[in-house]
Write a structure and sequence with these properties.
61 residues; alpha+beta; two-stranded antiparallel sheet
């Protein structure tokens, strides 16, 4: 299963500009690039899980 990478690549400058010489479009191409390296180690929160826990907590109160 594919991994969704929301953090921009450290080689990504702007739309159409990549330090590695690729046609950069972070929306699709950069996410599947074999040269992808994240800018920073960011922990992405599971928003669906947070919402479900919030609703369960609200129901019990």
């Amino acid at each position: 299963m594919a991994k969704l990478r929301e953090t921009p690549c450290k080689y990504y400058i702007a739309y159409g500009q990549c330090k590695k010489g690729r046609n950069a479009c972070h929306n699709k191409y950069c996410q599947h690039c074999d040269k992808y390296c994240p800018r920073a180690r960011v922990r992405h929160l599971n928003k669906k899980k947070q919402y479900n826990e919030k609703m369960r907590k609200r129901d019990y109160e």
